[in-house]
Amino acid sequence: MTQPLLEIRDLHIGIARRHGADEIVRGVNISVEPGEKLGIVGESGSGKTLTMLAVLRLLASPPLRVLKGEILLDGEDLALVDDARLRQVRGGEIAFVYQDPMSSLNPLLLVGRQVEETLRAHGATKAAAAARTGEVLTQVGLADPDRVRRSYPHQLSGGMIQRVMIAMALATSPRLLIADEPTTALDVTIQRQILELVTSLQEQTSMAVLWVTHDLGVVASLVDRVAVMYAGRVVEMAPTEQLFARPTHPYTSALLQSLPGTGSDHRSPLHQIGGTPPDPTRLSGGCPFRVRCPYAEDTCAQGEPDLIDRGQGSLAACWKDPSQW
Amino acid sequence: MVDAVLSARNLVKVYGGRRGQTQVQALTDVSIDLERGRTLGVVGESGCGKSTLARLLVGLEAPDSGSLLIDGDTIEMDERGSRVSLARKIQLVFQDPFSSLDPRLTVEKALGEVLRVHHLHVGSVAARVTELLAMVGLTGRFAARYPHELSGGQAQRVAVARALAVEPEILVLDEPTSALDVSVRAEIINLLVRIQDELKLSYLFISHDLSMVRHISDEIAVMYLGRVVESGRYDQVLGTSLHPYTAALADAIALPDPVHERARSAAGISTTSLQGQAVTAGCPYAPRCPRVEETCRRELPRLAEAAPGHLVACPVALRRG
Questions:
Q1: Do B70 and B89 lie in a common domain?
Q2: CA–CA separation, B180 vs B152, rounded Å?
Q3: How far apart are CA B296 and CA B281, in angstroms?
Q4: Residue of A nearest to B217 (CA)
Q5: pLDDT along chain A (325 residues), means of 10
Q6: Do B143 and B43 belong to one domain?
Q7: Of A2, B25, B46, B210, whose CB count within 10 A is highest?
C-alpha cells in the first residue's frame, strides 16, 4: 500500500460558538494518490470549497476554523507546519486555481511579472524565473506567449486568463493541483480546451489533480474517481465509470436522473429531486438527505450512516443497498 | 406563413465608437421569428450577442437599425407609450434571481409594485399576489418573505411570478437555470414548461446549456459574433446540424457519460481551435473553421434553406451536406 499524497482525515470545519460550534464540514475523509485525478462534486453549501481551502489553511478565520481532523501531505500534518514551510507548500507542492480567474490576478501588474513572482517566491533566480515563465505560457497553449507576458489582465479574455492561472500553478511543478470550479465561468468551447489541456499536462507531469465542480459532465470527462458531497459530508465515493453506471447513493442517482439527456423525451417533465439542500448547521439528526429521498425509512431518521462498501469500488453513506431501492 | 407573435427584422446594435473608443458590433443583421405558444432557444458563446438580443427585444435598449414587430405591429422604440405597451406583452427573467429582486422588498411588495405600475390592481393586490405565487407553485406564506429568506429555486419562482404579473404573451428567459444548483434546475424547467402550456406563453430561451435548450425548445437559433448562423427545428439544429460552428459547440459539451468522454479522448477528437481573430471580410467563423475554403474568406455567407425550415449560413455545408 503506497502512502497517499494527500490525506484528509475526519475533517470538521465550522464556526466556534461559546457553547459548541456550528459545523459546516462534518467529518470528511478524502485521500488522493500520487498522479490520481479526483473529482469533488457537490452543490453550493455542501462544503466542497471549504474543504479545499482548509488544505492550504486558507479558511477565513475567524469565524471559520478547523474544529477537528488532520490534513496530511505525504504524512506531514499541514496544521503543524511553520509559516516558512507553509509558504513552500502553497504554490510549490500544492497549487490552487480558483473559479473566477479575473479576480485572481493583480490588475495593476503585467501578467508575466505575476508568473515570475510566483517562481521567485519559490527560490528561482531572476533569469530562471523569466525562462520558465515563457516555457509554461507556451505549454498551456497560449498562441503568443510574449504578448501575454506584456499584457495586463484586462487585456486578455477569460479563457486566456484561466490558462495563465494554470500556467502559474504549473510553473513550480506541483505534485498536486487543486482546481475549484475553474471552468464554470467559461464557455463550453473554452472549457473543452481547458479540460484537454489539464488532461495532457497531467499525463506529461503525473501530478495529482483535485477538481472541484458541480458539473457532472466535467467529472465524466476528466477524473478517475469521484467524491460526492452533501451537507458537509462525503456521501458517495466511486470510480467515475461506476458512479455514472451504478450510483449507490440515492442523492447521486437523483442528480443523474435530473439531467436532460439525449434519451429524455422532448419537453416531458424532468426528474425532480424536490426540496432544497439543507443548511448543515441546522440538521436534525439522521441522514441529511432523508427528507428528499424517495427510499427513506424510519431507520434513516435515527442515525447518519458512514460510508458503506457497495462493491466494485463504490462506497455510499446510505443504509440501503441499491438493490433494495 | 407562421403565426409569429414576435419578429425581429435586421437588428443592428453597435456599442462604443464615441471619442475614439473601439466599436463593438454586438448584433449584425439579426432576424428572428417567435411562433405563438412555442419556444425559440438561442445558443452561442459569450459575446455572440444573445444577451444584447434579449435587451433589444424587451425594450431595455433601442437597436441602431432594424425593426421589432409584436403581433404584426411595429414597435416604435423611441415612444414611451410604445415601450409601456411592449412591457405588457413581453417580460424578461434574468439569470440570477437574487440580483434581480430588490433585497428590501418582500415578495408581496415586489409583485404588488408591478401591478400598481401597470394599473392592474383591480380588487385586492394581496389576492392577486397569492394567485401569482400559486401559479409558480409557491404557497401564500411566501408573500411576506424577503429575498434572503428564499432558496435559489424559490427566488427564481418569484422572479417568474413577477414577470407573469402583467399577463404577458412572451417571456424572454436569459439563462434562467444557470445560477441554480443542479438539483433544482429540473424543477424550474418543469415549471416553465407547465406554465407555458397553461397560459399559452411564447418563450425566447437563451442559454449556453445545449442539453437544456434541446429539451425545452421547439426551434433553435445558433448565434456567432452577432449573427444567426443556423436555425431550425430543435432536432434539425442539434440532431442534424450543418454549420461547422454548431457542430463544434455541440461537440465541446462535456456530457455526463464517462464512456462517451473516454472514447473522445482515446480517439483524440479535439475541438481546440484558437480564438477567432478580427474578420474584415468573408465568413466570421472562417478563422476557426476546420472546413474553411477559399471563398469563405472573401464572401459573407447568407442564411439559406437546407431543408424546410432549416437555415444555415454556410455554403460549404449546404453543398456537401
A1: yes
A2: 6
A3: 9
A4: A267
A5: 88 88 93 95 90 92 90 94 93 88 88 94 93 91 88 87 89 92 80 86 90 91 95 96 95 91 78 82 88 92 92 94 90
A6: yes
A7: B210
